[in-house]
Amino acid sequence: MTQQRTASLTDLPGEFSFIRRCFAGLAGPAALDLRDDAALFTPPQGRELVMAADAMVENVHFLSSDPPDTIGGKLLRCNLSDLAAMGARPEGWLLTLARPPHITDAWFEAFSRGLKADQERFGLTLMGGDTTSTKGPLVLSLTIIGSVIPGQAIQRRGAQAGDGLWVTGTIGDGALGLQALLGKLADPDGVLARRYHTPEPRIGLPLYGLASAAMDVSDGLVQDAGHLARENGLTVTIRAADVPLSHAARATGQTWRETCLTGGDDYEILMAIPPEHEPALLKSGCVQTPHGPVTLTRIGAFSAPDHGQSGVQVIDEEGVPVAFSRGGWSHL
Amino acid sequence: MTQQRTASLTDLPGEFSFIRRCFAGLAGPAALDLRDDAALFTPPQGRELVMAADAMVENVHFLSSDPPDTIGGKLLRCNLSDLAAMGARPEGWLLTLARPPHITDAWFEAFSRGLKADQERFGLTLMGGDTTSTKGPLVLSLTIIGSVIPGQAIQRRGAQAGDGLWVTGTIGDGALGLQALLGKLADPDGVLARRYHTPEPRIGLPLYGLASAAMDVSDGLVQDAGHLARENGLTVTIRAADVPLSHAARATGQTWRETCLTGGDDYEILMAIPPEHEPALLKSGCVQTPHGPVTLTRIGAFSAPDHGQSGVQVIDEEGVPVAFSRGGWSHL
Questions:
Q1: CB contact under 8 A, B133 and A332
Q2: Where is Mg(2+) 4 annotated to bind (chains A, B) (predicted)?
Q3: CA nearest to A328 within chain B
């Protein structure tokens, strides 16, 4: 022990002032001002909790050049999409980050602003987290907590042969947006890039009593539909021509159709809907949510597995199977 | 769309078989077999939830050469220590990992074995998570969920002037263990290295009705005692000679005393204990937990802030203030 600077021990170390500056403004009551070892959360009475965790890595899930406020917002929105897929209401979130030296405090202040706007919009608050340093890329990991009335969570299992395959919103804009940001595609109005940066989680989608199974589309429509089919031991057939595309996606032309169907980053909800609920939906074409009406489109149907093999097939307007050069994203 | 390999779409992508192989054996009922977008957890009736998240980065928090089973176990144990500090019971955990190419499947299988042994020992199961790739170091992020009887969580705030400062177990072994692993220190029996690899979270420590405030020691005794003092607007004085050291730590000699007091990686619990509870504790020197008896040592006391400045001071046997070359770890 040397005789030096006791005074420094009463100063706040850098990590703590960083947390206070960038994250204290996001903290809700469970967070105990982000000063404790853990958050203290009273679960809403008579509800089950729904929990998911997603990590995002610099230059894998976002570009270093992306606006930092959209990165914070996107991380939260991707996790919100997992809650939406089960019909859950958001309650709170925890964040860990591994911070490399090239990410500045100003970057984190903008990152935090994006998170603040989105947590206010979707009605949840920060509960806790951890910050650490790394010599590698920025790694962000978000755990989200939601809740649902017991027994009303919609899962991936539950689809039956004969159920229709439905999807919210439009497919492919996120994947095209990434290509636009990489300079491979024109995006005159920036619509596609916006959809890549700011997906719209379908929070409040009234799945209970409507869908027999659901999941969110994050790794590409075709791959994710395959997961949904396999979880239920079924085949699902997607009619490519029925997949809803935005005006901006249509304008990119036929060459980009495969990207739309397999590209990922949609964060729309894929549902199995029993036949008895389909006529009303086919008529209205949408459902109401607290965040506005959401269009629903029937893009195919579930059937008994083809030769005992469950999975996905895509057909064209003549019913001829379509194949793809790749199925979707696998993160490993 | 090209005419190629529809068959591949019915195969399990690599990410999914990896999760099944390495993590399905850890999953509890809330995890829905790790096949869904989120976990579904029924909170234990009449209890509050306690939640914490911690990240560990390769070559910051662990060495690439550390046995992978101890890395999994340590990550879980560090998070369990956050629950222990509030007097909470473990319920479940979520994990995200950013995986670089140099970390093999065999590595993750051993990592998972360490987690399995420890989750069984401490009575919790895996609820969910996410895996992704990175070109940087391995980053692991764990969110832990615990529960406590409402109103019985012990927080950092609550200490009063006159309370004693107490600590569980022994201090410094983890920090010395790291130095031993770095080859800077002899550790003939490997006791110190074991304490670095496998900290002992003080789950089940009966804090309620005993401590007025508590936290776990992760960033060094002196720095963390400073946090506890500042959170309460008090000064805390540590008597260096009273800090409990293991035989192995004592054997390293006086040169390593500063490392013990400031090094971190202890995962012992630091408590403020009101004077009325102290005589019984001074007599018994330990408390019972479901994982065996835990020694408690009085190492100092809280007092009104010195010249209005709250914080920590360390004194020697003559009451003379001792200073250190550094206060503790800050992760940023």
A1: yes
A2: 37, 82
A3: B9
pLDDT digits (tens, 9 = 90+) for A89-119: 999 999 999 999 999 999 999 999 999 999 9
What pLDDT, on a 0 to 100 scale, did the predictor assign at position B10?
A: 36
Sheet holding B39-41, edge to edge: A125-133, A89-99, A139-148, A48-57, B39-41
- Residue A143 CA to residue A95 CA, distance in Å, equals 6
Q: Give the whole-angstrom CA distance, residue A128 versus residue A111.
A: 16
Inter-chain touch B132–A321, beta carbons under 8 Å: no
Q: Is residue B106 within a helix (H) or strand (E), and if so which, with residue range? A: helix B105-122
Going by the DSSP 8-state scheme, the letter that residue B153 receives in this structure is: -
State the average pLDDT for chain A: 91
Q: What is the DSSP letter of A315?
A: E
Report the mean per-residue pLDDT for chain B.
Answer: 91
Query: Which parts of chain B sit beneath pLDDT 50?
Result: 1-11, 329-332
Do B176 and B248 form a contact (C-beta atoms < 8 A)?
yes
Place of tokens 């420590």: B205
Q: pLDDT by residue (tens digit) across A288-305?
A: 999 999 999 999 999 999
Task: Tell whether B280 lies on the interface with A, counting CB pairs under 8 A.
Answer: no
Place of tokens 């940001």: A181
Taking an 8 Å cut-off on Cβ atoms, the answer to whether A128 and B6 are in contact is no
CATH class of B164-322: alpha beta
Q: Is the pLDDT of residue A6 over 50?
A: no
Listed by start position, the domains of chain A span 14-148, 164-322
3-state secondary structure of A86: helix
Q: What is the dihedral of CA B173, B179, B181, B186, to 10 degrees?
A: -80
What dihedral angle (degrees, nearest 10) is formed by the CA atoms of A218, A223, A224, A225? 140
What residue type is assigned to position A247 of the chain? H
Contact A249, A173 (CB under 8 A): yes
Question: Which string of b and e fits B91-105 if b means at least 16 CB within 10 Å?
Answer: bbbbbbbbbeeebee
Query: A82: nearest CA in chain B?
Result: B37
Q: For position B327, what pLDDT does the model report?
A: 54
Three-state secondary structure call for residue B210 = coil
| Residue A65 clears pLDDT 90, i.e. is over it | no
CATH of A14-148, one of 1.10.1240.10, 3.30.1330.10, 3.30.830.10, 3.40.50.1000: 3.30.1330.10
- The residue among A84, A87, A95 whose CA lies nearest residue A31 is A95
Which residue type does A129 have?
G
The answer for residues whose C-beta is within 8 angstroms of residue B280's C-beta and 6 or more apart is: none
pLDDT of residue B326: 63
CB–CB contact B9 A327 (8 Å): yes
Rounded to the nearest 5 percent, the helix, strand and coil shares of chain A are 35, 30, 40
Per-residue pLDDT, A330: 43
How many angstroms separate the CA atoms of B167 and B217, rounded?
9
Residue numbers in B near A133 (CB within 8 A): 57, 60, 331-332
Would an 8 Å CB–CB cutoff place A3 in contact with chain B? yes
Contact B15 A310 (CB under 8 A): no
Count Cα neighbours of B13 within 13 Å in the Cβ-side half-sphere.
18
